[in-house]
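Entry:
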Amino acid sequence: MMAKTVDKGAGQQGYALLLVLFLLAMATAVGLVVMGNGLSARRLARVASIAAGQEQRAAAATWIALDALLTQGNTDIPPPRRLVLDGQTVTVTVVPETGRIDLNGLSRKALAQAIHALGFPEGQALRAADAITAWRGMDPPGASGLELTIDPVRALWSLEDLDAIPGLDADVAACLRRWGTVYARGPFHGLEPLTRRPGDRPAAGDERGEGPLGLVTGGMVRVTVVEEGRPQLRRSVVLYRGVGRQAAGAGTGAESPWLPLEWQRPVLVGRDICLMTDRDGAS
């Protein structure tokens, strides 16, 4: 009887020891998981905080540049602005969106001519135009960009959609990310109106006379913001609603004169390096 009691007590102690070891192992595992989650959570929180800070600085720089453009009423492309926000240096550039190569509206022939005007050989330009028109599934009869029927599924909704077009040359795509547009309808008059700086005279035969950034109702501008040391820039395309509207102020209830069409799309710096035009100094 005594032997059975001792065996039973030893068995209970053995079970207790196993239970303690199991609980210790579980506690260790849970501790490691919690510690890992804690570190990951802190890292994720830091990354999210940095991203939020970049977005806020880019938004502030964008509105500062647009307010300055509205106040000055420039008709020429203003030089890039360097701002210091939250201790971070940012460069903001405002350039015209209207007048660029209309990737949705130009006909196949006009698109090929525009790409050729960027410096590409005719054959390469024609192949690129073929790839784009095949992707968008439409070839407008003219280059005016008026009364177009656009396939909402295949139309380009962003310049980054160029990456999805099969057979499109990478160098052409890089140039079109810089000089193309998916918003502004109209013909392409070359790079000169898009690269004019304050004090430059219009080229001979340019009957329009005014610069490309005249604040006309329905005019569009492209704003890019890049932070020093960061691999991304943020690109926005905004529409000017019209003269007479005042910038929205705190508590005023005034309507903003700007309508964002594409807001702060992150783009890798240098993806739009256009070697054909850069080599000639056109940009």
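The chain is about 40% helix and 15% strand.
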